[in-house]
Amino acid sequence: MACYLSLLHKMLYDKPSYWSQVNTPFRIIYWVLFLALLSAIEAMNLYAQGSFLEPKKLAVLAEQGGHITSAALPYYSIYGSKGDSEILGEGDIVFLDSGSGQGIKPGDQLRVFRVVKLIIHPVTKEKLGNLIKVIGKLRITEASDKTSTAIITDMYDNAIFKGDRVIPLTQGGAGQEETTSGRKEGEGVTGYIVAIKDEKRFATQGDIVYIDQGKANAIAVGDTFNIQHPDRLNSATESQIGMLRIIAVQEKTSTAVISHSSTEIAVGDIIVE
Q1: Which of 78, 93, 98, 112 minimizes the C-alpha distance to 147?
Q2: How many CB atoms lie within 10 A of CB 84?
Q3: Is the whole model's pTM more than 0.85, yes or no?
Q4: 220 and 93 in contact (C-beta within 8 Å)?
Q5: What is the pLDDT of residues 25-76, one digit of tens each?
């Protein structure tokens, strides 16, 4: 928007026949208002670009971002709901196939998740694990020996369905805790983007991606990496196409948000510290 405003200003100011009829006080007022509006627009743009990097919003992104795991997750299932609806939303009452016999008690919070697909490394072809998509949260209201009742408290997707899986918040998390990198100074890390959330073909600023580096590589929440196209690494062309920030860490993979992008980012693009 700022560039269009500048263009309009140029079109007006470059017309001597128009400005010769405008008195000096009006020109001063025009300049003051124009510069103030331009500054406000630029400030709004900067805020919009960086607002999702605020700590609270990063925590939300980490909770909703999902992760890749090779571990087998012990899960429960939603087997029904009040009113017997197939499609469920925030505030709906659901029934789970596990109860106090499995340690569930009133007040417990659980994640609702789906297994999206098996992630294969784009370069090494190694099986990295299943991509887990977190779609909401439940809170237990009642628990019997083998079943329990819960209310859907948060929705991260369009809908929750009967049959969706749930797991306690204390299990199978995405590793969102703030940590300190264990790497020595000068010990850089190079890796790859191996998946994009929601199976998008390309990622841009604000999108969630998954990389092939994790706790085993001393990656920590808050680490930042440059993103490069593989075919530009040894060329004279500017190779950096964006940056990402780590928001959750697993043993061999991590979840990240694209904090800046100058072009579309794809699976197989390289990350360099």
Answers
A1: 98
A2: 7
A3: no
A4: no
A5: 665 665 556 556 655 555 454 444 455 567 777 777 888 889 999 888 889 9
